[in-house]
Design goal:
It is an enzyme of class 4 (lyase). Its EC number is 4.4.1.13. The chain contains 15 helices and 14 strands. The protein is α/β, with parallel strands linked by helices. Helix 5 links the parallel strand 3 and strand 4. The mean pLDDT is 98. The structure holds pyridoxal-5'-phosphate. The site of pyridoxal-5'-phosphate has 13 residues, from helix 4.
């Protein structure tokens, strides 16, 4: 039943370094909380109680920078992906039912692209800029292209990812203020997916600026902002199907709620996992240990690729500020092997995420949230695949 381990098993059991979950079990306190629900045997409809409501509200206040976060602005979701779809429909409703064009910065986590498609509305893709130094790539915003996109009369929504999947950037305060001001100037709803926020690998070096923390600085943002997060990435509970949106503006919140009124129920497991993850002190200790492990894995891959002449010649890679995802640009590899990086790597024993669904067919993504020996197996396959190119 593991998507990551089973999906490609029939292709020679490649080392699975793809879909974004971790090979680590959730913190003990989360396992205990979910187990207690399972044991109780009542799997009927669940409502969030005061404790989990306060825990989620406090998270928006303390980790996402919404100084005046209050429970009325919360909306529970069975995942962020439904929320992305609701945001598209909410933006349409906010414009009196007229279809809106959705702007996204690519490459991007595929459901950002699917959300407009699902609504049968259009999207505009703004390519991020890539700067390269010694094989390492760092992405930034193409301001001119972004403003051109947002200035279009039919663009009504920017689906924003901070930290960004797949390029791993934590956007700076200056960047966030500029993005928010552009949204206000052109009357665009800003939907900020902040699910990777608690996996910033060195927060001193790249401090987080949540969209909710600049509400006072950017007039008009409050009326246009949807923030989403979840314990799913940080605590490895994506299968518990729980996420939260925070929408300060009442009218926008109503649009979002109506647009998503067909959502699935949030299960009691989701609420229990959230409460434990957000309130049990051992979960924060677990998160700190996790960050240390992930940072070391990131640096280990960076060192291995830097030492490999073929990698330096055929690829660029990110050293992500956040997440457990490393983004490879394999243009030169594709020139040589004349097939997608995904196909080339899987043939050599490692399953990476295919770049094509991210709107980047010449790329691939490594998930390094795994045990070091498994990561090393995958790295050996990558090195061999490059050698044989
Ligand atoms: C940016 C981003 N948003 C949303 C999701 C998925 O969230 P969910 O499983 O809650 O739908 C992911 C999963 O990788 C993600 O990277």
């Amino acid at each position: 039943m593991s998507r990551k381990w089973d999906r490609f098993a029939s292709r020679g059991d490649p080392t699975p370094l793809w879909v974004a979950d971790m090979d680590f079990s959730a913190p003990r306190a989360v396992v205990d909380a979910v187990t207690a629900i399972a044991r109780a045997g009542h799997y009927g409809y669940a409502d969030p109680d005061d404790a989990v409501t306060e825990a989620a509200t406090a998270r928006f206040r303390e980790r996402h920078g919404v100084a005046d976060a209050n429970a009325n602005a919360l909306r529970w979701l069975p995942g962020l992906n439904p929320g992305l779809n609701h945001a598209v429909r909410a933006a349409r409703r906010a414009r009196g039912g007229r279809a809106v064009v959705t702007a996204v910065c690519t490459p991007i986590y595929p459901p950002f692209l699917h959300a407009s498609r699902n609504d049968e509305s259009a999207r505009v893709e703004v390519a991020l800029r890539r700067a390269i130094e010694d094989g390492r790539a760092r992405y930034s915003i193409d301001w001119e292209a972004l403003e051109t996109a947002l200035a279009r009369e039919d663009v009504g929504l920017l689906l924003w990812c901070n930290p960004h999947n797949p390029v791993g950037r934590v956007w700076t305060r200056d960047e966030m203020v500029r993005v928010a001001r552009l949204c206000v100037k052109h009357d665009v709803v800003l939907c900020s997916d902040e699910v990777w926020r608690e996996l910033i690998l060195d927060e001193k070096a790249t401090p987080f600026c949540g969209a909710g923390s600049i509400l006072d600085e950017v007039d008009g943002l409050r009326e246009r902002l949807i923030i989403m997060t979840s314990p799913s990435k940080t605590y490895n509970v994506a299968g518990c199907d729980v996420a939260m949106a925070y929408i300060a503006d009442k009218a926008l919140r109503l649009h979002f709620a109506r647009a998503g009124s067909d959502k699935a129920e949030i299960t009691p497991f989701g609420y229990a996992a959230t409460l434990a993850a957000y309130t049990d002190p051992s979960c924060e200790e677990w998160r700190q240990r996790l960050l240390t492990y992930l940072r070391a894995n990131r640096d280990h891959i960076d060192a291995a690729l830097s030492d490999d002449a073929n990698a330096r010649e055929l690829m660029t890679w990110t050293v992500p500020d956040a997440s457990y995802l490393m983004w490879l640009n394999c243009e030169k590899l594709v020139d040589r092997v004349e097939r997608s990086p995904f196909e080339h790597f899987i043939e050599h024993g490692v399953a990476l995420s295919d770049g094509a669904p991210f709107s980047a067919p010449l790329s691939a993504r490594i998930n390094f949230a795994t045990r070091r020996d498994i990561l090393d197996q995958g790295l050996d396959s990558i090195v061999t695949a490059l050698e044989r190119a």
